[in-house]
Amino acid sequence: MTTETAQTLHPGTQTVTVDTGRERYDIVIGHGLLALPQCWAGLPRAAQAVVVSNATIAPLWAARLVQALQPHYCQVTVIELPDGEAHKDWPALNAIFDHLLTHGADRKTVLFALGGGVVGDITGFAAGCYMRGVPFVQVPTTLLAQVDSSVGGKTAINHALGKNMIGLFYQPQCVVCDLDTLQTLPQREFIAGLAEVIKYGPIADEGFLGWIEHHLDDLLAREPGALAHAIRRSCEIKAQVVGQDEKEGGLRAILNFGHTFGHAIESGLGYGQWLHGEAVGCGMRMATDLSVRLGLLPPEALQRMHQLLVRAGLPVRAPDLGADCYLQWMGRDKKAEAGEVRFVVLQAMGRAAVQGAPDEVVRQVLQAAVRVDALA
Amino acid sequence: MTTETAQTLHPGTQTVTVDTGRERYDIVIGHGLLALPQCWAGLPRAAQAVVVSNATIAPLWAARLVQALQPHYCQVTVIELPDGEAHKDWPALNAIFDHLLTHGADRKTVLFALGGGVVGDITGFAAGCYMRGVPFVQVPTTLLAQVDSSVGGKTAINHALGKNMIGLFYQPQCVVCDLDTLQTLPQREFIAGLAEVIKYGPIADEGFLGWIEHHLDDLLAREPGALAHAIRRSCEIKAQVVGQDEKEGGLRAILNFGHTFGHAIESGLGYGQWLHGEAVGCGMRMATDLSVRLGLLPPEALQRMHQLLVRAGLPVRAPDLGADCYLQWMGRDKKAEAGEVRFVVLQAMGRAAVQGAPDEVVRQVLQAAVRVDALA
What we know:
Two copies of one chain form a homodimer. Chain A has 376 residues and is an alpha/beta fold. The first copy, chain A, has 13 helices and eleven strands.
């Protein structure tokens, strides 16, 4: 899709371009996009399209998307996966392959990931492997997916021994963020998505952090103008980072701020107990605390993060899994190398770096995190 | 590994370079390579290496490879998969992931595929997906793997509904063909591998076809000089084709000469009844027959292919699965587009092309193939 096409779609539609050097694609952000046939006109030609969604999202949005795709493909089918992080696994992935093969999908078939991060990650992985790669499009319907997981080409499924352990870097043809879909999102999921929006402030843009603090009530009320700005700015930062480091050789790792602790929470509790964004929210507080304890940040920075997370309704007290359990899960993090856990830390508000940390300091962070008082 | 390193390994060691434009690596061909520590000196540094092999090959060759790797990695472990095409599936792939995760393998861990085409395909796929990609090395121990499957970065597992349906293009760091490993290969497997050597003649080099016809007895006796030449020339042709078309946009499909029919034989009979090379041998005869019936080749060309395949000990009569069964399996071939089956045909001996064919001509080929007399 060209920028010109996107801007003729609806007034106010915005475009952010991701350019990894090897691939280039647009993130289109606007209202009512999903149901517009012209939104899908610029994609690769194929005999068929397959919409991958889940049991929650499909009843709300799949029919509109299918109708908008029908002018472009002879056959459009929908596969519904079970909803939830617990199903980001091989059986769900294989259900997509079964659907594709029984429907005679060929090497040109285009997949559409209609849903949140789980649907996007698993559909992207399926597209990357089916017949060694078919095109796919991200149509994220959650805030978390729109600002984070749908952009940048990370795809994966979980393994019993670790989250996102099996996957690919595989870029979509484009990302279409229809803001209307956010209006049907349950509040808990919406707030979880805000954690990934907030993330972009501390790691890359203190000004954006200030904007979020100032407009948090508008965001929580899902005010369209505030949402559009927050999503565009988040996508811009993500696109800039991914453009410099597609495969997480270095810089890209800063996008995992809060994720090393967060993944340990998710894994330790069992996938699906906490939402990913909730775990990341709590993990960002822990990573900020770590940065303070390492002498990188003044204590006021922790206070600032803490207050914003609490105002947003995100959890700040970590579940008491025991420090050894945390350390064990963090040792399995993909950023770990030869057993050493690597953390994303803040060198200042708006500037992140990746480094190791002494075990005893990490233990202090863990011990403090399970005793955090939200009202402190 | 640099060419200079390779050539200091053993007298007579030869190198063929694959250059896809995005990646560049060497195929090293020689004697006693596997057990030489200096053969593995140029690979990416890592804390650990994992050798993936199978229950047949590991007892013969794994200890030598492990010993040669130990100077370069703190930890070298071996995982043995069950042997055979029937196990080129998700459970075997997941067994590799289990091994990697329980051994704390990180994003730098190097995998070594020690075995035939099944081990190479599945290990390459595992390497491409584990933590979104770790380096791997092909150490093919069968003739088929040395001349074909280990070169070019095609990796895959089978799906119940089709062969190699789930996979990646993922290039190895290098390919090390130790000619000594061919001496322990059962004759049936060796002959199956010859089918892929023979293939390079009709599709790309009539002179090489003549050389094979002239040296077939030496090859069947596994005479080292003849083997070394056949493998080097096969790898050169494959490297040239893959270098021009890594992802099978066009030219690369010619490497599948005989494979559309061959895959239908393998799938129709159930994986593992015929060896892959046997099915390809029979399939090449069928594809040559198709080329003759389409008026592209004179009937003498079919006679020539037939005689060579019979002399090599490859099957020329197709199993009688029924034409509908063949057509159904061929319709699922990855080269099929929007239901139309695409065949690799010969426009002359030494020149291949990809095209469709009328159903009735394909049916004539199928009907004739099940009545072929090897002595004709």
